Structure formats: C-alpha cells, structure tokens
Structures
1.
Amino acid sequence: MDQNIIDQAQSVRSGENINTPGFLSFINEKLYNHKGEIEILQFPGGYSNLTYLIKKGEAEFVLRKPPRGANIKSAHDMGREFKVLNLLKPIYNKIPEPLFIYDNEDLLGAPFYVMERVKGLILRNQIPKGLKLNSESFRQLSINTIENLAQLHNLNIETTGLKALGKPEGYIIRQVEGWVKRYFNAETDQIPAMNETADWMKNNIPDEVAPALIHNDYKYDNLVLDPESLEIKALLDWEMATVGDPLMDLGTSLGYWAEPDDHPALKAFGLTHIEGNLTRQEVVELYGKKSGRNIDKFVFYYVFGSFKIAVIAQQIYARFKKGLTKDPRFANLIFVTRACADNAANAIKYNRINNFK
C-alpha cells in the first residue's frame, strides 16, 4: 500500500492540543500492553468532532472528541457514537473496532473514545498526489458507495437492538420542523429560496416507510477505501446515526452529491462532480434496485437534504459572522447555503433532482 496516498494525520492545530499530563498518564495506562512513547497527531478536514491519531510504538489508534464549547448532549455525543459502533460490531464489518470510552470531562474538557485505526484512502475535496483515478474508477466508487448504503439500510433493527437508537414514528416531520427552526435561528441574510423551500416541505410531507438505521452523514470523505480496489474498508463518523426513514439518509447524501453543472461552492467539498461518477438520478435508481424501496417520490428527500446542508453551512457561517470562530474556511459558507437553496428550489420547480438548466 502506497503510504503517500493513505490518509495522513498532521500536527495538532493550535488550541486543540490534548497532550496534558493527566491525559498522557491515562492513555499510557490504557495502552499498557503496547511499547513505545506516545505521539499525538490530528487528522485534517471536517467541521464537527475532532479526530486524533494516537501512536504508541508501532500501534496506532484514533481518538474522537467534541470541539471546545460544543453541546455534548446533541450532535457531539461520544457515548452515543461509541454505543452505535458496539451495536454494529457483530453485524456490520465496515467499522473500526471500538476500544474504550471516557465519559468524564476532567481530562480533555469533554468525553472521548478510542478505536482502532483503519488505514486506507479517504477522498476529500482533492485527489491525493500519486493516486490515479479515471472515469471508470469513479463509476465503480460511486456504485460501491451506494450499494453499501443500501446494505446498511437493510440491517435488521429489530433483532439487533438498533431500533432503540431512535424514535422512527414521526421522524420526517420532526426533521423538517427541526431544521427549519435551526435555519431561522441562524439566519444572517435574506434568502427567499430557503423560506420558500421551508414552506414547501411542511406542505409535502410523504408517508412514512419502514424505518432503518441511518448514518446521516454518508459521503465519500467518511469512507475508508482500499486504494487499489476502492472497496469500502470502513464507514466513519457515526455521531448522528439514528433510526428513521432511510430515504432521508439518501436525500442528505445527495445534497452533498455535486454534479458538473452545480455551483462551484458545492463542488469544492467533494469529488462526485468528476467524470465517471453516477448522476444523482442514477444513484437513486441504483439504490432503489439494491434496497427494494420505492423511490418514485424522491424529489422531497432531495429537497430536504439540500435544505439540511444549507442549514449546516448557515449555522457555521453565523458563528463566524458573530466572531465566535476565526477559522477562515467559514467565511465563504454563505455561498454553500445559497447554492443548496437554489438546488432545492430548482428540484421543486422542475420536479427532478438534476439537469436544472
């Protein structure tokens, strides 16, 4: 395996160090059966939880914790993520091995957990240097990605204990109302398409379908791939996993799934716009075939996914505009909000999920 294209950790960012004496003592004790000095690095990317590489001699582990000041009872619940991994362990082999969790806040200011490191390729917004991918590579990757999502959604939530992770009844309306509320709480600019989309969703709630385990952040940069075959080795970042309508999960994924004609602000976040990838419509058709679910009324789910991603970008942008964060990456997120709003509005206008021009 070419180490140059494997996902690499870097020096820890300023203000996010975890190498306190108390933590180092704790982690040395937990990893007592591995020889060597502790080295701590940080994985790049992401806008949510912080991810660190813990090295002790030849052994490598990954630590996940919320960012400073985060609400650890909502989207940054490490205990929940650790529980999800343990429930999946006997039935789904594309996850890292969860090792241990620390529930208190005294060591790092928040709970954290440690898991095995799964080495492989993670495709973010640029193809790593030294890796050659052609159109056939991307076609196979997009097929692998959607087939794996269908497999995930077909796990038995009744016999595995997974159903306890959420309340599937009324899931769609709760999600719509919740994300609409979050948007207006974070609104900084007048974007008519967001207001119109919010009203349309409330008036077009589809019937509920059989619930499934849903990941809620399923996209290329949460997949660890074999760099040769592009087979999926592990699915990461389970912090928002729950039980609900699986088409809502696919809708969110397709909100991120930029195509060549989409706004540059959307294409900057991933690689789905590169030639060879399935189109959004092809994704939906493949998912329907592999999952056996009815996808005839998918426009609603794509509209929701686009709106949701617009809100996520808007929330981060609002914090930046208020001076609560100085990360320069966040200054342009308002363009992501606008681009997602436009896609949602066009999907409603044309009653389709792509080819808006």
2.
Amino acid sequence: MNTNLDGTSPKKGVSAIAPKEGGGFPNPGLPPHPKRQSDLSKAAEKRAEKLVAAMFLLSIVGTAVFIAAYFVVTPTGPNLFAESETPQAVWWSNLITGLGLAVAVFFIGAAAVHWAKTLMPDEEWVEERHDIASSPEDRDEAAAILRDGIAETGIARRPLIVTTMVAALAALPIAVLAPLSTLGPLPGNKLHHTFWGHNPGQRLARDHDGTPIKLSDVAMNSIFHVMPEGLTHETEHFLEERAKAAAVIVRIDPKLAKNEESMAMGVDGVLAFSKICTHVGCPVALYEQQTHHMLCPCHQSTFDVTDGAKVIFGPAHRPLPQLPIEVDAEGYLVAPGDFTEPIGPSFWNIHKDK
C-alpha cells in the first residue's frame, strides 16, 4: 500500500506517487491501451467494415433521392405528392430534396467517423521533441512513416470500403451539379416587359381590392399601391405577373417638380413608379409626405419622387422605373404602356434593345 513521505496514508483521491530525486514527479506514462472488438475478433472487424460500406451506400441513395426529387417533386412542375404550384407542392419539394441531401452528407461523415473509431489504428504514441531542421535521412523516415500510416489504415486491404467511399464521394457532387441543368434557357426579353406592356390601356386598380382609381380619388401627398385592373387569379403565371407589375402612385404639387420629363409622364402631379427596389428587389412601400421621398425598408435606399425617383441615398444605383399614366374619358387613371425601364435589380444587359 502506498504511503506519504511522513508515513501516513494519502486521503482518498490524492496521488501517492512519491517525488523523484531532484524535484518534480516521475512520468506516469500512458494508461493501458484498451482493445476494441475489431482488434480482438476478425468477425467484429468484418462487421465494422460492412457497416462503414453500408453507410457509404446510404449516402449514394440519398444523393439519388435528391436528384430524382429535384426533377419529379418540384414546386411548379411535376410533383408526385401534391398539385403543382400549391403550398403543398413547395412543402413536399423542400422535404424530399432536403432529406435526400441531408442523408447524402450525413452518412459520408458517419462512415468516416465509424471507420476511424473501429478500424484505423488508435494507439497513442509519444515522440520526443527534436531539432526542427531535418536531414535527408529524417525526411526519408518521415516519408516511410506516411507510407506505413496509409498501410495501417487498411485501405489496400479493404477494397469494399474504398469502392463505396469513392462512389459516395463521386455521387455527391452530382447533387450540386444537377440543378445547373435547369438554369436555362436564357430569359430573353422577359425581364423587359410586364403585364402593363402586354395589355396597354389597363386601368390602375387598388392592390387590396382591385377597384379602379379615378384621378379625383388621389389626394395631394397621398400614396396608392396599385395593380393592373385586368390582372386576376385566372391570369396565366399570376404570381409572376403580379410581382413584376407592382406599382405605387403618389400625388405631389407640380410646383415642387425637379424633373420635367418625369412630370410629363404623369397627370396633374400624379406619378406612378415601380414598387420593386432597383437594389435587390424589395418592395419600396414607405413614403415620406413632407420630403416626398420613397424608402426601401430592406437597405434604406431612398428615392426622390420630385426628381423622377432618382436615388439620393442607399445602395441602389438607378431610379425606380416610371409607369406613364393618362386619364380616360371616365376619369380613371390608365397606363398606355409599360415601365420606362426593366423593373427590379439591374442585370447584365438591362439596356439591350427590347
């Protein structure tokens, strides 16, 4: 039984290792290395190898599910579980593609961890620190150690694991590349036109109830959120057309105008502009009546309505496109054509011929 230097017994939990001569404590060394089941049994080793291979195969299955779901469980196209272009279709598409990708990535990691814990060498080694500079002999020795380490991983002796690992790693990038096939075709001139241009002469209607707006309805310094009167739920691609056609009208005192060209596209100080910010497409929905500034709440881009909605602050780089308006025989506001420029954020050929 170990005792302290004075002959007394140590308290529970207190080390009884005697100090070595000259001070300090002796190196207690490493604890005994516990053997794993795969170290003691060939059958256990084989089971571990098969489990690792099975997890790599599950990763491949996950990749296949993701790719298949991307094409047959889509939110706006084919969907095996719900009607296309419904919230349920979006839900199923997100669920199946998300689960497929999660399984593909998770089981690659799980297989690598299980491989390391059950089959790769896990004994601890202690090497004394030596001079940083190494001789050619040391470099040759280091290279030999690397070769031995690779040999110890058992890669050469475990073709099943290697084959399934390579297959899983090769299949995973396909899940990333598959969506690239649906990026085309090029949009052509679709970004240059909205429902206003496809159907000239549309009355401006209140966004919330679809009732047309008369010039006399627009009070000084007021703002209306508007849509084309003919844009209904029965319209083909309703949500896309609605997103592009969103506009606002404001009324200012013509005496405050700084841009004659912009005022000429309005009626008695009533001006119409796209509601879509030219920075990243957020809705420009805030209007300051005293300053006549329109504000985008996302990144604070600010547009001066008295000067053709030019940018006076924020990250946007071009004015809000203006919608020319007129008054028809019954006093209703109508749009004879489309916005003066493509709506929304800028893109590579925004000023290309329409």
3.
Amino acid sequence: MENEMYRYQKVKQDLLQEIRHMAPDSRLKSRPQLVKQYDVTRTTIDKAISELIGEGYLYAKNGSGTYVSQGKETETEIMFPSASWGVIIPDIRKDVYPGMVRGIEDVANRYNVNVIIGNTDYEMDKQDEYISKFIRSGIGGLIIVPTIHESGRITMFTEARTAGVPIVFCNRGVSGFEAPLVLSNDFYGEYIAAKYAIGSGYRKIAFLARYWYSTSRARLQGYLSAMTEHGIVPEEIYYSYNGQDKIDVEKAAEELLVRPERPDAIMCFNDNIAEIVYRVAERLGIAIGSDLGLIGYDNTALCEQLPVKLTSVSFKTYEIGENAANLLLDITNGRQISEKKMVVLQPELVVRQSCLGRRCRTGEALA
C-alpha cells in the first residue's frame, strides 16, 4: 500500500515538472503513453492526473484529452507523506562521507523523506546493530557503505531483505549478498593518476595504502596497469607494503624515502595518507612538488589546506550519494531494480602543485 502511494505521488511530481515546460492549453500525452513512460499502472496515472485536475493544473475535454490550465502556478510544492531512510556510513566526519550524505539528503528532501544517519566507526558489530534498529523502527530503506570486512558476514543484510527493507550499497559491495551498488571506478582513478605522474616525467613511482581490501586492490591494479602500459616495472618494495591488513603509514613512508633509490613520486590511497607522507618528507628535507611528486585520492578540503596544494583524484562523492538515493527511491516506488544493478562513476584528476614534474627540479618550463 505504501509503495503504491509513493508511486502515484512520484508520477504526480514528475508530471508537474513536465507541465512547467508546457504552454497553457497544450495537450498532455495520452494516458497509455504515460503508462509506458513511467512504467506504472493505468490506475496510478489516472489517480495522479485526477488530483492535478482537481488542483487546477490540468483540465480535461471529453473525448479530446487532458490539457494544461492557464494561470496556475505549477511550482507549488507537493507535500509527500513522511518516510525515512537509514544511511549507515563509517564516520560522517571523515573523508568522502559528508559529500555523499549531502547527495542523499538533497534527493530525500525533494520527496519529503527523512534521513537518519548511523556511524559504524568501521566496526562490523555497530553496523549490525544499526541495521537491526532500523528494521525494528520500520525504516523505508537503507543506504550503506559497508565496513571493510571480507568474511561474508551477511546475516543482518539478509534479515533486512526478509523484512522488506530495500538496501543500496555505496563504494563497495558485500561478498555473498547481492544488492544495487553505486561506486567510483577505483581502478580508473589510480590509473589516470599514475598516467599523469608518468607523463610528468616521474618513473620511480610508489603506491601506498593503509588497509588491504577490495578498494585498495583495485587502485593498486590501476597503478600497476599504467606502469606496465609505459614499460615501467616498479621495484616490489614500492608497493609491497600494501599486502598487509593495516600498516603504519608513517613508518612505511619513511622507509621508502630514506632508501638510496627512493621513489620520485608516491600515489596515495587517500588524501589523509598523502598528508602523512607530506609530513615525513618535510622532516627529511624533501620538497613536495619538486623533489617528490605526490598525488592523493578523494579531493577533500585538505588538498587546498596543505602548503603545497595537493593533486588528487576527485571521487565524485556527491554524485555517488545522489545516485544511491535515486535508486532507493525507485525501489521504494515499486520499480523493478535488479539486485545486480551497478552504477559506476568515472573519477577525475584535479591537478594542483604537488606533482609538477621532475623537470621542475632544474627550473625547466613544463610543456
């Protein structure tokens, strides 16, 4: 019943948007055409149009069709019934999550959906607790950035599905549980970062991540692919730190930078790791941007705050949240979305001063 209510109200909202761009007395598409366009039943279309006629946005001519009324303000807001979504993320204060939540909220706000946030602090038990609480509260749907865990622990996801609570994943999926997924192309992001560094004259390029899981593996593969494409075989030490569950980034960065054959550039899993490398380099008297190229990932506010502004891969966090919310909206509106549905967004490199090229050491102008 609730899904049926959402369906007709969303159609009503979409029709209003369409009417706004139509001249008064213009004829609306036929009802069979609208059924096909919105992929809903004739009853849903009839109900939405009937209300718009009653509110003065449309008028009907017997045997002729439905037309746009004159003089009615079509931008009047439609109030939707209250509903709630749960958003479960590792930590709202860190990395990409504020932008992601904003993307979700902007979609939810348009449809009068409340957003309730739960922070897992990267703990699996907390994630399970939040899912359980949301199920008991009658939540309308869940958007989840799963904790970094690859053991196949899926009990609470299965319970949510059994309870009729739809789930959309962001950033990464969960082994053994299929659900729509919105993510950034991590392979491509690190690939374009490494390609840029190579094109800037760097050859001894390292890759550094703190955790070893699906995302860091994809980025490492992107880095290695770019290196291989250019006939560069990096020393294993330049990326071997990344095979551990968790590393001491500061220690690993120092070990790399004190080597006689130290890297001339480092690709970092995220901007926070880049900041740590920046501090280590500064302590060792290595200048970022001239002595050492440095590229981060996520394009957070930190990039503009460092003394040498950080080149970084833009994760498109807002768009990930926005796409996830639109998927969840479609599911709650009764549209058939495959559990294998995947939306992949292409990241972009934002170039600043931290990776200017090896030629800058000698004062040569960049091409």
